[in-house]
Amino acid sequence: MLFRVLPLVCAAVAAVSGAAVDPRWSTSYNDQVDAVLNRVKLYGPQMGLDPMPLPDINRTVSVDFLFEKLSAGATNTQGVLQGGTTLRRTGNATARVEGSAVYVQADVDFVNLDYVYTSRVEFLGLSTSGQVTGSINDLVLNMTLKVDLSGSTHAEEELSDLTVKNTGGLTVHFDNGMTLLDELIDAISDEFTEIFKNNIVSYVQPEIKKAVEYAIKKID
Protein backbone atom coordinates (compact mmCIF):
# COMPACT_ATOMS: atom_id res chain seq x y z
CA MET A 1 0.00 0.00 0.00
CA LEU A 2 2.78 2.45 0.90
CA PHE A 3 4.48 1.98 -2.48
CA ARG A 4 1.21 2.63 -4.29
CA VAL A 5 0.66 5.92 -2.45
CA LEU A 6 4.34 6.96 -2.42
CA PRO A 7 3.64 9.96 -4.72
CA LEU A 8 1.04 11.11 -2.20
CA VAL A 9 3.62 10.81 0.56
CA CYS A 10 6.01 13.00 -1.41
CA ALA A 11 3.27 15.51 -2.10
CA ALA A 12 2.32 15.62 1.56
CA VAL A 13 5.91 16.26 2.62
CA ALA A 14 6.13 19.17 0.18
CA ALA A 15 2.80 20.73 1.16
CA VAL A 16 1.68 22.83 4.08
CA SER A 17 -1.10 21.33 6.21
CA GLY A 18 -4.49 22.64 5.09
CA ALA A 19 -3.24 23.62 1.64
CA ALA A 20 -3.97 22.12 -1.75
CA VAL A 21 -1.30 19.80 -3.11
CA ASP A 22 0.60 20.84 -6.24
CA PRO A 23 -1.58 20.07 -9.34
CA ARG A 24 1.46 18.50 -11.00
CA TRP A 25 0.73 15.44 -8.85
CA SER A 26 -2.75 15.09 -10.40
CA THR A 27 -1.82 11.92 -12.29
CA SER A 28 -1.12 10.22 -8.97
CA TYR A 29 -4.44 11.41 -7.54
CA ASN A 30 -6.22 10.13 -10.64
CA ASP A 31 -4.58 6.73 -10.24
CA GLN A 32 -5.69 6.63 -6.61
CA VAL A 33 -9.32 7.27 -7.54
CA ASP A 34 -9.28 4.97 -10.58
CA ALA A 35 -7.92 2.08 -8.51
CA VAL A 36 -10.93 2.35 -6.20
CA LEU A 37 -13.42 2.65 -9.07
CA ASN A 38 -11.95 -0.37 -10.82
CA ARG A 39 -12.47 -2.40 -7.66
CA VAL A 40 -16.08 -1.21 -7.46
CA LYS A 41 -16.59 -2.46 -11.02
CA LEU A 42 -15.01 -5.79 -10.09
CA TYR A 43 -16.97 -6.45 -6.90
CA GLY A 44 -20.12 -4.50 -7.77
CA PRO A 45 -22.13 -7.36 -9.28
CA GLN A 46 -21.64 -9.65 -6.28
CA MET A 47 -22.73 -6.79 -4.01
CA GLY A 48 -25.97 -6.31 -5.91
CA LEU A 49 -24.77 -3.08 -7.51
CA ASP A 50 -25.38 -4.14 -11.11
CA PRO A 51 -28.13 -5.10 -11.55
CA MET A 52 -29.42 -3.24 -8.49
CA PRO A 53 -32.86 -4.01 -7.01
CA LEU A 54 -34.86 -0.83 -6.48
CA PRO A 55 -37.48 -0.08 -3.81
CA ASP A 56 -41.18 -0.04 -4.73
CA ILE A 57 -42.60 3.35 -5.68
CA ASN A 58 -46.35 3.61 -5.06
CA ARG A 59 -48.08 6.97 -5.35
CA THR A 60 -51.41 8.63 -6.14
CA VAL A 61 -51.20 11.88 -8.10
CA SER A 62 -53.58 14.45 -9.59
CA VAL A 63 -53.27 15.03 -13.32
CA ASP A 64 -54.90 17.48 -15.73
CA PHE A 65 -56.81 15.61 -18.43
CA LEU A 66 -59.55 16.96 -20.72
CA PHE A 67 -59.80 20.14 -18.61
CA GLU A 68 -60.41 18.12 -15.44
CA LYS A 69 -58.36 17.07 -12.45
CA LEU A 70 -58.16 13.29 -12.26
CA SER A 71 -56.71 11.13 -9.51
CA ALA A 72 -54.40 8.39 -10.78
CA GLY A 73 -52.49 5.82 -8.79
CA ALA A 74 -49.45 3.85 -9.86
CA THR A 75 -48.00 0.79 -8.15
CA ASN A 76 -44.43 0.22 -9.30
CA THR A 77 -42.72 -2.96 -8.14
CA GLN A 78 -39.83 -5.31 -9.03
CA GLY A 79 -37.62 -2.38 -9.97
CA VAL A 80 -34.15 -3.03 -11.35
CA LEU A 81 -31.36 -0.57 -12.17
CA GLN A 82 -28.69 -1.45 -14.75
CA GLY A 83 -25.36 0.37 -15.01
CA GLY A 84 -24.34 0.79 -11.38
CA THR A 85 -20.82 -0.42 -12.20
CA THR A 86 -20.31 1.96 -15.14
CA LEU A 87 -19.09 4.70 -12.82
CA ARG A 88 -16.04 6.69 -13.93
CA ARG A 89 -13.96 9.65 -12.84
CA THR A 90 -14.73 12.94 -14.61
CA GLY A 91 -11.90 15.43 -14.86
CA ASN A 92 -8.77 15.40 -12.72
CA ALA A 93 -8.77 14.57 -9.04
CA THR A 94 -7.48 17.15 -6.57
CA ALA A 95 -5.90 16.79 -3.15
CA ARG A 96 -5.30 18.70 0.04
CA VAL A 97 -3.20 17.96 3.11
CA GLU A 98 -4.53 18.06 6.66
CA GLY A 99 -2.03 16.98 9.27
CA SER A 100 -0.72 13.55 8.34
CA ALA A 101 -3.53 12.81 5.91
CA VAL A 102 -4.04 13.51 2.22
CA TYR A 103 -7.64 13.99 1.05
CA VAL A 104 -8.13 13.09 -2.60
CA GLN A 105 -11.32 14.41 -4.17
CA ALA A 106 -12.93 13.64 -7.54
CA ASP A 107 -16.25 13.79 -9.33
CA VAL A 108 -17.71 10.50 -10.50
CA ASP A 109 -20.52 9.88 -12.99
CA PHE A 110 -21.98 6.89 -14.86
CA VAL A 111 -21.78 5.84 -18.50
CA ASN A 112 -25.40 4.73 -18.33
CA LEU A 113 -28.10 4.13 -15.73
CA ASP A 114 -31.30 2.49 -16.97
CA TYR A 115 -34.19 1.24 -14.87
CA VAL A 116 -37.35 -0.80 -15.32
CA TYR A 117 -40.37 -1.40 -13.07
CA THR A 118 -43.45 -3.58 -13.33
CA SER A 119 -46.30 -1.07 -13.10
CA ARG A 120 -50.04 -1.00 -12.53
CA VAL A 121 -51.91 2.26 -13.16
CA GLU A 122 -55.43 2.90 -11.86
CA PHE A 123 -57.78 5.77 -12.76
CA LEU A 124 -61.53 6.30 -13.16
CA GLY A 125 -62.14 2.83 -11.79
CA LEU A 126 -60.04 1.30 -14.55
CA SER A 127 -56.60 -0.27 -14.36
CA THR A 128 -53.85 -1.20 -16.78
CA SER A 129 -50.60 -3.08 -16.28
CA GLY A 130 -47.28 -2.82 -18.05
CA GLN A 131 -43.76 -1.53 -17.47
CA VAL A 132 -42.14 1.73 -16.56
CA THR A 133 -38.75 2.29 -18.18
CA GLY A 134 -36.35 5.19 -18.12
CA SER A 135 -32.80 6.49 -17.76
CA ILE A 136 -30.94 8.64 -15.28
CA ASN A 137 -28.71 11.16 -17.03
CA ASP A 138 -25.84 13.26 -15.67
CA LEU A 139 -25.95 11.97 -12.10
CA VAL A 140 -22.66 13.15 -10.55
CA LEU A 141 -21.24 12.07 -7.19
CA ASN A 142 -18.38 13.79 -5.39
CA MET A 143 -16.00 11.32 -3.74
CA THR A 144 -13.36 12.12 -1.15
CA LEU A 145 -10.74 9.55 -0.19
CA LYS A 146 -8.67 9.94 2.97
CA VAL A 147 -5.14 8.52 2.93
CA ASP A 148 -3.62 8.49 6.42
CA LEU A 149 0.18 8.65 6.19
CA SER A 150 0.92 8.56 9.91
CA GLY A 151 1.90 4.88 9.89
CA SER A 152 5.60 4.06 9.56
CA THR A 153 5.09 0.98 7.38
CA HIS A 154 1.81 1.47 5.58
CA ALA A 155 -0.85 4.02 4.65
CA GLU A 156 -4.48 3.64 5.67
CA GLU A 157 -7.07 4.52 3.06
CA GLU A 158 -10.78 5.09 3.67
CA LEU A 159 -13.78 6.81 2.16
CA SER A 160 -14.17 10.21 3.78
CA ASP A 161 -17.31 11.31 1.96
CA LEU A 162 -19.55 10.52 -1.00
CA THR A 163 -22.26 13.04 -1.83
CA VAL A 164 -24.58 13.80 -4.71
CA LYS A 165 -23.21 16.82 -6.59
CA ASN A 166 -25.74 16.84 -9.41
CA THR A 167 -28.96 14.80 -9.53
CA GLY A 168 -29.14 15.17 -13.30
CA GLY A 169 -32.26 14.34 -15.24
CA LEU A 170 -34.54 11.32 -15.46
CA THR A 171 -36.89 10.00 -18.10
CA VAL A 172 -40.10 8.09 -17.35
CA HIS A 173 -42.06 6.05 -19.88
CA PHE A 174 -45.19 4.11 -18.92
CA ASP A 175 -45.69 1.29 -21.44
CA ASN A 176 -49.26 0.21 -20.76
CA GLY A 177 -50.41 -1.06 -24.15
CA MET A 178 -53.56 1.13 -24.19
CA THR A 179 -52.95 3.51 -27.08
CA LEU A 180 -56.30 5.31 -26.64
CA LEU A 181 -55.11 6.64 -23.31
CA ASP A 182 -51.68 7.84 -24.41
CA GLU A 183 -52.37 11.46 -23.44
CA LEU A 184 -53.43 10.45 -19.94
CA ILE A 185 -50.42 8.17 -19.53
CA ASP A 186 -48.15 11.02 -20.68
CA ALA A 187 -49.70 13.26 -18.03
CA ILE A 188 -49.09 10.60 -15.38
CA SER A 189 -45.48 10.22 -16.58
CA ASP A 190 -44.89 13.95 -16.14
CA GLU A 191 -46.17 13.81 -12.57
CA PHE A 192 -44.03 10.80 -11.72
CA THR A 193 -40.76 12.11 -13.16
CA GLU A 194 -39.68 13.96 -10.01
CA ILE A 195 -41.03 11.19 -7.77
CA PHE A 196 -38.94 8.55 -9.53
CA LYS A 197 -35.89 10.80 -9.63
CA ASN A 198 -35.92 11.58 -5.91
CA ASN A 199 -36.59 7.99 -4.85
CA ILE A 200 -34.07 6.32 -7.15
CA VAL A 201 -31.21 8.80 -6.61
CA SER A 202 -31.65 8.79 -2.82
CA TYR A 203 -31.52 4.98 -2.88
CA VAL A 204 -28.56 4.66 -5.27
CA GLN A 205 -26.19 7.03 -3.43
CA PRO A 206 -25.84 4.97 -0.21
CA GLU A 207 -25.57 1.74 -2.22
CA ILE A 208 -22.66 3.20 -4.19
CA LYS A 209 -21.12 4.41 -0.94
CA LYS A 210 -21.20 0.90 0.54
CA ALA A 211 -19.61 -0.49 -2.61
CA VAL A 212 -16.79 2.07 -2.52
CA GLU A 213 -16.09 1.30 1.15
CA TYR A 214 -15.97 -2.41 0.35
CA ALA A 215 -13.72 -1.82 -2.66
CA ILE A 216 -11.21 0.12 -0.57
CA LYS A 217 -10.95 -2.75 1.90
CA LYS A 218 -10.16 -5.10 -0.99
CA ILE A 219 -7.24 -3.02 -2.25
CA ASP A 220 -3.95 -4.47 -1.08
Written description of the protein model:
With 220 residues, the protein is an alpha+beta fold. The protein has one domain (6-217): Bactericidal permeability-increasing protein, domain 1, CATH 3.15.10.50. 29% of the residues lie in helices and 44% in strands. The chain has three helices and eleven strands. The chain has helices at 6-14, 26-43, 182-217, and strands at residues 52-54, 57-65, 68-82, 87-98, 101-110, 114-123, 126-137, 140-148, 156-166, 169-170, 173-175. The strands form two sheets. Strands 1, 2, 3, 6, 7, 10 and 11 form a seven-stranded antiparallel beta sheet that branches. It has a four-stranded antiparallel beta sheet with strand order 4-5-8-9. A hairpin with a 2-residue loop joins strand 2 and strand 3. Helix 2 (26-43) packs across helix 3. The radius of gyration is 22 Å and the shape is elongated. The termini are close together.
Compose a concise summary of this entry.
The chain is an alpha+beta fold and 220 residues long. The chain has helices at residues 6-14, 26-43, 182-217, and strands spanning 52-54, 57-65, 68-82, 87-98, 101-110, 114-123, 126-137, 140-148, 156-166, 169-170, 173-175.
Q: Which shape, going by the Cα principal axes?
A: elongated
Look up the CATH topology: Bactericidal permeability-increasing protein, domain 1
Helix and strand composition category: alpha+beta
CATH hierarchy, class: Alpha Beta
Strand content: 35-45%
Order of helices and strands: HHEEEEEEEEEEEH
Q: How far from one another are the termini?
A: 6 Å
Number of domains: 1
Give the proportion of residues in helices: 25-40%
Number of helices: 3
Q: Write the CATH architecture name.
A: Super Roll
Mean pLDDT: 84
- Structure summary, number of beta strands: 11
Q: Indicate the radius of gyration in whole angstroms.
A: 22 Å
The biggest beta sheet, please? 7 strands, antiparallel
Q: Extract low-pLDDT stretches.
A: none
